[in-house]
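User: Hi! Is it possible to get a structure for several chains at once, not just one? Here's what I have:
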Amino acid sequence: MEQEQILEIALQIGSTLLQYGAETYRVEETIKRICDSYDLNCEPFAFTTGVFASAKVEKGISTVFKRISSRKVDLTKIARLNALSRRIQREKPDYKEIKEELDDILKCKTYSYGAFALSFAFTASVYAYLFGGSYTDAFAALIVGILLGLIHPVFAGNSSLFPFIQYFADGFAAGILSSVASILIPLTDVYIVIIGALTNLLPGVALTNGVRDLLHGDNISGVTRLGEAFIVVAVLAFGAGIGLSLWNLGGF
Amino acid sequence: MFLHFVKLFLLAFIGSIAPAVAINIEKRLLLWAGLGGALGYCVALAFNPYSLSFNIAQIFMGTVFVGLYSELMATYLKAPATVFCIPGIFPFVPGVSAYQTVLSLANNEFNQAAVYGLNTVFKSFTIAFGIMIVTAFFRFVRKQNKRGENLPSNSK
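Assistant: Yes, the chains can be modeled jointly so their relative placement is included. Here is the combined structure:
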């Protein structure tokens, strides 16, 4: 395998890891591990929206940069990419084989639309109860969660929208749906239902990963991740607040 | 009391599995990730079973347990530790106080916002710290082991 190809493969694996929510140090370590196993001396650098690596090759110095446009957490892809990088280290397969495996990982199947909606519903209902709601609140959150889980992929799957609009739409939907649920189901607290429904969308992973990066010494990605988490929370709360007040304005 | 624990164990189990499905965990690891989250929650709960809102020390104990569980399961089930960590810490993540911070800011209640904001910051720091301590420890042990393995081959 040529040295440029090694760098390309390493960067592709690294950027995919970053795109699906791996920590910064894992991305850098993976790139370094792959290059090291082919005796290529490289310096990787990863931050939240891109990753680059520079290596000394025969013709001089080669640098590859990959920009990441959309991010979402996907544990299956992280696990399989990690396994792939270990396999590369152990067996050193050739370029074509790695490419095929990478394509296979990118196409790996996700849970069905229905299972996704159900997971939203259960999360919403469990956390509505744990945050001090009653059983009726939990039931209302279950209904709101299912609807939110059905709505969410419509916006999240659309790459032409800004992330801002996606989060706003999610928050807005949560606000409106919870207001409707609190009217249809007696004795429910709108705020508990909203909090339960929003637990699905709150950036818990970004928040803790941000602090983890900071503690690890990756200050740039740590601060950017925390900033991202803050923006997401702000936009969600903004959307939910507007949804609620619009509903109240309507005189219900 | 026992029933109280069983109920919360089941709730935390669902509360770890459901978000894990939303972030597409592998099917073979799903129940294991849920078990880690539920056990971690019960560890935190054992220090003060009467309140469902945890303090910093409880969260720390819970996340240290989740970290240990994840590292052990990572070796046992051949998957990266993050796969167990992220669902496991989900019941502790202070998403709600983050939301309440922004909500109080929007309502001009700055004192409330400061309280919720500090709460959020400290809790997320505690979670990350608990996980990092365990990760750092395991890395240290693995490095030492590797060095031990390499020594005889070098001396040949």
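Chain B has a mean pLDDT of 87. Residues 60 and 130 of chain B are 6 Å apart (CA to CA).

User: Great, thank you!
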